[in-house]
Amino acid sequence: MAVGEPEAFTVYGWVVCVWVLVVSFQYGFHISSLNQISEVLTCRNIEPSLPSTYYGLPTCIAMDDATFSLLTSIYTVGGLLGSVGANVVMDRWGRKGACLASAFVMAVGAGFMGVAASLSPLLIGRLLTGVAAGLGLCVGPIYISEIAPVKIKGAVGVLTQFAIVIGIMITQAMGLQLATPRTWRLVLLFSSALSLAQLLVGPIIVESPVWLNRHGLLRDKDASVRRLWKAGHALRSPDVANEDAEDPLLGNDNDENQSLNPNRRADEHGPAVTVPQVLLRKEFRKPLAIVCFSMLSQQLSGVNAVLYYSNNILSKALPDLGPYVSLGITIVNFLMTAAPIFLIDRLGRKKLLSLSATGAIISLLGVGIGLDNGAVALASVTIITFVASFAIGIGPVPFVMIPEVSPPQAVSALSSVGLSLNWIANFLVGLVFLPLRDFLSGGDNLKEGRVFFVFAALLSFFTFMLFSLYRG
Predict the structure, then answer these.
(1) In terms of Cα–Cα distance, which of 167, 57, 35, 180 is closest to 111?
(2) Using N-to-C axis directions, what is the helix angle for 11-31 and 86-114, rounded to 10°?
(3) DSSP-assigned letter for residue 205
(4) pTM of the full predicted structure?
(5) b/e for 418-440, b at 16 or more Cβ within 10 A?
(6) pLDDT for 92-128, tens place per residue?
(7) Which of 206, 338, 342, 450 is the most exposed place for a label (fewest CB within 10 A)?
(8) Which helix (H) or strand (E) holds 58?
(9) Backbone dihedral region for residue 302 (phi beyond 0: left; psi -120 to 50: alpha; all else: beta)
(10) First-last CA distance in the chain
(11) Cβ(369)–Cβ(378) under 8 Å?
């Protein structure tokens, strides 16, 4: 490590880190926000003795399966919209400004859902929460990387996925307690209140030193550094997030003094690259391919199919404990996501990814074999080991990689492209999982595991493609 580089956050730096992670928490929160309350929300689980309204609002909003599926999936449509425009917001308003924009849209969207009296505001609110999550998921990893001290950058980067998993776990736990006609709205209003709190705290949060440096605001950058990092006054580097790791991870043979390269330093002050330029210019093909393959490995592993449909998958093993099984899977995900925080800077990104992918592929094959042969215990155990394997690498590491492999002037555009692809793959998995399972099984309940062989093949292919380019 070069002399003068930051080794730790100040207390205030950790406050900023937690503030940024709220946007990732909200993404995870709304992935599962409707799962536990779906029965009462859609009027399938009503109590005839209770009045049909509570504080002037209906106690449920009637909808059939198709309508509820639309309500669920429109979140990913919003997420895609938010990701597509994220680079413009990040480069124009800054990382802090993008987080504030995400918080504002989330507060409005979740608030709409919390006070909805009919389907239309519920759909609008769900769409807006998706837009907010898409924007937040783009800016969060970049902001975190740009404020993180070099020595703990990898560990801090993993906190993005950690916050997502905490969001999933909290919403499922809240849903178990609040899935009643009078209280289900509190799940959604909690999210709105959290974003309002984030907006109120916003004025005391500093902007990313990297963004300030790129825009020539050197005094503000120096003030930000002094507040974020211990020994910040000794720093000589304006771009801690990208300069030390980017080129080696792309496989170039550069030494640790790469940050002093005048050409790279020129890039740090050059104009931000747009999405079309990232897609068309030759010098961005390698980082673009790495980002895209990492996102496809993450989503096409089938993890969201497990999270979305875990009740359906495990209904044979534990028919009376479906909601608790979902919460249990999320708790496993939470516990295993903690491991990379301590391991990522010791083992390296690629080794963690390799261990994670190997475990996930073997687990997917186990799930398929278990379901196809009526070995429900095997299928149940390997679903858990799959989630655990995913959590130690495939889940968190891609979010760490994006700002590290991206040239400074292209980090926003590459993030926007990568996360847009993430949302598209997320949507497709959620859309085709059950129909594909039914098609491959031919209506035979003992052949429902075949779909997991498809996910194992997809994960193997995209991991191979990623490793052919990435030298992390």
Answers:
(1) 57
(2) 60
(3) P
(4) 0.83
(5) bbbbbbbbbbebbeebeebbeeb
(6) 899 999 999 999 999 999 999 999 989 999 999 999 9
(7) 342
(8) strand 57-58
(9) left
(10) 17
(11) yes
